[in-house]
Known about the structure:
The chain is of the alpha+beta class.
Amino acid sequence: MLDLIRKKKKSVIIKIVFWSIIATFVGTIFLVWGKGDDAGQPTAAFAVEVNGDSIALEDYQSAYANIYRLYQNVYRDQLTPALEKQLNLRQQALDALIEQELLLQQADRLQLRVGKQELVDAIAKIPAFQKDGLFNKETYIQVLRGQRLTPESFESLQERDLLIEKVRNHIRQNITVDESEIQQEYRDRNEKVDLLLVRVDPAAFESRVRIEPAPLQSYFAANVEKFRLPQMASLRYITFDPARYRGEVVLAEDEIKRYYDRNLDRFEIPEQVKAAHILIRTPQGADAKLKEQKRAEAAKILAAIKAGKDFAAAARSLSEDPGSAGTGGDLGSFTRGTMVGPFEEAAFALKVGEVSDIVETTFGFHIIKVSEHTTPRIKAQSEVLAEIKDGLQSEKSAQLALEKALDAFNINRKGGSLEAAAKAAGIEISSTGTFARDTPIGPFGVNAEINNSAFALTSVGELGRPVRTAQGVVLFALEQKLESRVPELKEVRVAVEQAYRQEEGKKLASNQADALLALIRKGGDLSSTAVGAGLSKSRTGLFARARNNFVPQAGVSEGLMTAAFTLTPAAPAAPEVYEIEGSYLIALLAGRQSAEATGMDPAKLGELRTAVLSRKQDEALDKELEGLKAKAKIVYSDAFKALLEG
């Protein structure tokens, strides 16, 4: 059976984290399947061999691509190349594939198998394949077809995942937890310490650094690559501004109609009301008695309005909404989905000029008056004709600008020049000034398309393909290209001096912190020693252990977090100076709040036991995988190495 699974695995894209993905099966792409059923296709080039069993290159590529999409859904626009590198997504995909292969091999050694009924039961439990809570064969086939999978290939994949889970359970099954571990877990979660921190700031020591020619030259020589000048380029360019060509645009009636039809959403007037309100606010968590008192206040105001009191005057003097009371309760116009539910329902149900009964929301009790009610509609073409013409002229003039720029490029790309293109178009030539890769370019700011094209040009005067920008379509030519080089000290002296001061300032600060810690250990008085320029004191307040190792008032430091809970009144000073977020910190115990699990609720103790057991099981699995990986023969193909290097 295991051999059959492996054969299927070579032709069907491997999936990772199956159970987390199957939970949202419908409407998603499986994390690593990606390609659906490729059964019968030739075996692809391999990426990695694990003890002789290969993982296809296309499997790795699909695994990486889909893990990337998973993180992209989480981070969205924040998933920059730098963050992607920090998350190490390529290694994540590779590690997951290798670990799954190692677990399959371990299943073979342990002679573990998945029974047919076991497989059937597992598939039947997947909600995506159910109808009215029961497995439905038609739904099963339909969902698989949507993922381009046959039942046979999916069942092999499912069998494989169940087998991997059996290996994991085999590793976890003998893990136990004793009472001392539960006690320690409770202490780890609930014990707190308070630290006195002495911060030594390197920036305050920079003014003490003397700049001498010889040391500065030595520093520059040792760090010259830090000051290497990047490759630079400058461009000469002409801009085909769409505004120049608006007069050449001719609009036909059918174009106007098509523009109107394809932009109906732009001409839609949503339903909206213009309303004012009076609010009698109720505090959050108010009890029933207080709410009734507030409702009675609102009822009294409502009765006065119905008796003829001016609504706006009542709002100015009685409403507890500071944002609208001063304007007679006016809220302006709003569409559906803007206000909280009960308020919105009441407002849209009112006729113009009508005053509502009392409306209760999470804010309190409202009295609402509607002054305008706009019904939803789509503006007629005649109403928006000027807007349509303006939009069409903008579209067509932008297209004309692009066409003229492309014509100029094509005419001059081989035998012509930017000067010839500029003369023919009647446009003045400008220059960007020099810029480096991935830096702003003159008036165009950060523009990757122009930047990449500029550094791909090889000879002065060579034209780059036109690029659309906010200013118009730009046709440009290389003005100059300066190769990256090591500068002379005089060219970068300001930057070198600044870096030298920072480095020497750090050394002075580090020495000061070491000396201060030594003094404290000898019994020195901290109150008199931790004063002066660059030195400051603060208290963390009581804090517990944190998995992210964040220490209040200090920052993230695994070393300090660990040391903090080993300190005692007899030995209050942390064993070393900690460099955190650019400063040097000395820590002393200022207080401790102990924690013991005695007399704890049995249910809470059970939760602790479960947490400890789960962690120990995960640690056992990680240890087993590390051992398997250490013993494994893992070979990477040349094609895979090239992919990683690229």
